């Protein structure tokens, strides 16, 4: 089932031996945990669609590689905005989190951080994200600001809709638009197809993540895709991943990707197929490992697209 909480309030899905627990001053640790710094998978999953989009834009623009400055900005922005989003989500969900084993010792429901202090911390992280966003062109800035809408409404969707992962996907897939807009100052069909594919990917991997909490969510009345799909969770994840692969392949085609780009898409698809076949109903520990493996899946796709851009630049 969901992860149990271990030493010093550190949840079981945190990385063992992370520097937050070893090196950070004790007074900082609740805030670093509030921003999920001890769980880097979240910012990886926010970052990877940005990098996919940057690589796809490089292919379309005949650039020899994805813009390194853009990729660095996306990295900083992903860490800051993932932290801000997690802090906002925890402020909104602190009462629900107290009812779920995996989340009841998070900094807010456990009383390690007061809500007003969490709100101030949220503002600081959001300002860092805004500073990063302002480095891009005006169209990219406007598109980035629009991402705040799904971020704002997501924490409340698990109370009213059976598939809140779709709203989460709208937010976490947003980077698929940003890399393209940062290069072309507009959105074209390949970026929109990539966004749709990333959305399906997010719904798939977050359904896997939600398997950890099915029993507690049922007790607390929290809605999730894992509860919605029930015993059909594996085929549902498979459908999401298949749609993600098809849409991303179409995006690669629209951008003019070559053989190596498609090879990256194929390897990405193979990784997603392995996840689907490995998923077991109500196996929380296994679900967490599969969820985390999406960093590797996303990096495989990015490498394929980026190498494709490099090879096109050399030809």
Structural description of this entry:
The protein is built from 16 helices and no strands. The chain has helices at residues 19-22, 29-34, 41-60, 68-97, 115-133, 138-146, 148-157, 165-172, 175-184, 189-210, 214-220, 225-229, 233-255, 259-278, 284-292, 294-314. α6 (138-146) runs antiparallel to α9, α10 (189-210) runs antiparallel to α15 (284-292) and α13 (233-255) packs antiparallel against α14. Residues 1-7 have low confidence and may be disordered.
Main features:
315 residues, mainly alpha, 16 helices, 71% helix, disordered N terminus
What's the topology here?
Blueprint (H helix, E strand, L loop, with lengths): L18 H4 L6 H6 L6 H20 L7 H30 L17 H19 L4 H9 L1 H10 L7 H8 L2 H10 L4 H22 L3 H7 L4 H5 L3 H23 L3 H20 L5 H9 L1 H21 L1
Helix pairs in contact: 3-4, 3-9, 3-10, 3-13, 3-16, 4-5, 4-7, 6-9, 7-8, 8-10, 9-10, 10-13, 10-15, 13-14, 14-16
Family: Belongs to the UbiA prenyltransferase family.
Organism: Methylobacterium longum
InterPro entries: HB_polyprenyltransferase-like, Prenyltransferase, UbiA_prenyltransferase, UbiA_prenylTrfase_CS, UbiA_sf
């Amino acid at each position: 089932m969901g992860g149990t909480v271990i030493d010093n309030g550190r949840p079981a899905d945190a990385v063992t031996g992370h520097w937050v627990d070893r090196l950070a001053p004790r007074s900082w640790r609740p805030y670093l945990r509030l921003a999920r710094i001890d769980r880097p998978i979240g910012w990886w999953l926010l970052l990877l669609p940005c990098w996919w989009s940057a690589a796809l834009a490089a292919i379309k623009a005949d650039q020899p590689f994805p813009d390194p400055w853009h990729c660095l900005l996306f990295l900083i922005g992903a860490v800051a905005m993932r932290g801000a989003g997690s802090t906002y989500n925890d402020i909104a969900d602190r009462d629900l989190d107290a009812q779920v084993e995996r989340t009841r010792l998070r900094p807010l429901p456990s009383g390690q951080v007061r809500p007003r202090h969490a709100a101030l911390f949220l503002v600081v992280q959001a300002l860092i994200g805004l500073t990063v966003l302002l480095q891009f062109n005006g169209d990219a800035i406007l598109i980035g600001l629009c991402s705040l809408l799904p971020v704002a409404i997501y924490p409340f969707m698990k109370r009213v809709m059976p598939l809140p992962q779709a709203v989460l996907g709208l937010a976490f897939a947003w980077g698929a638009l940003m890399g393209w807009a940062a290069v072309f100052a507009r959105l074209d069909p390949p970026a929109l197809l990539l966004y749709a594919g990333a959305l399906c990917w997010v719904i798939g991997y977050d359904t896997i993540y939600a398997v950890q909490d099915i029993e507690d969510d049922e007790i607390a009345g929290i809605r999730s895709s894992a509860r919605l799909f029930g015993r059909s969770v594996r085929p549902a994840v498979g459908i999401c991943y298949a749609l993600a692969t098809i849409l991303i392949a179409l995006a690669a085609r629209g951008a003019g990707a070559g053989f190596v780009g498609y090879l990256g898409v194929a390897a990405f698809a193979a990784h997603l197929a392995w996840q689907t076949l490995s998923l077991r109903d109500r196996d929380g520990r296994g679900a967490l490992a599969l969820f985390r493996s999406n960093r590797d899946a996303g990096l495989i796709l990015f490498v394929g697209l980026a190498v494709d851009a490099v090879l096109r630049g050399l030809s």
